[in-house]
Design a protein that fits this description.
Oligomer: single chain
Radius of gyration: 49 Å
Shape: rod-shaped
Structural class: mainly alpha
Strand content: under 5%
Number of domains: 2
């Protein structure tokens, strides 16, 4: 009897062992499948990441190129602004010189009459460019109140603005 029990027990052990072996084989297969899926996912992720890095590098190059163009244009614009300011200054000086020249050649009484009817800041702009001798002759022909207001503004100096 012991031997039947031993055979039965051995048979059950072998059966349990085979069942356990089959379960473990299935688990190993599932683990292998999961590992393969993970490797495929990792490879796809790395490929996508590499693609994104290349795109990012290209965009950085594009941005840097655009930035260089912007800087170049900014320098060109600054240069043009400087040239325009110089031209405006030259034009203003020529205009002021022409006006000053005109007033310096006028008779004192005529210049005084015209300047009296002007706004104070405009009269100051004109008088400021004349010689002190010419200014004194013109202001002597002006009404005292207007001459004193103009004198106060001339003391402050340029720039002469409408509202000071």
């Amino acid at each position: 009897m012991v031997s039947v029990f031993a055979q039965s027990s051995t048979y059950e052990c072998n059966q349990i062992f085979e069942q356990r072996k089959a379960e473990l084989t299935k688990k190993i297969e599932k683990i292998d499948e999961a590992r393969e899926a993970y490797e495929a996912l990792r490879a796809a992720t790395n490929a996508l990441l590499d693609k994104k890095r290349k795109m990012l590098a290209q965009k950085e190059r594009d941005i840097n190129a655009t930035l260089q163009e912007v800087k170049k244009k900014e320098e060109e614009i600054k240069s043009l602004i400087t040239k325009n300011q110089e031209l405006l200054k030259a034009i203003k000086e020529a205009k002021d010189d022409k006006i000053s020249s005109t007033y310096s050649k006028m008779k004192d009484s005529a210049a005084a009459q015209i300047l009296t009817n002007m706004k104070v800041y405009e009269a100051c702009k004109i008088l400021f460019n004349l010689s002190p001798k010419k200014i004194s002759k013109i202001m002597a022909k002006m009404p005292p109140t207007k001459a004193s207001v103009i004198t106060e503004r001339l003391l402050k100096g340029p720039p002469f603005k409408e509202k000071e």
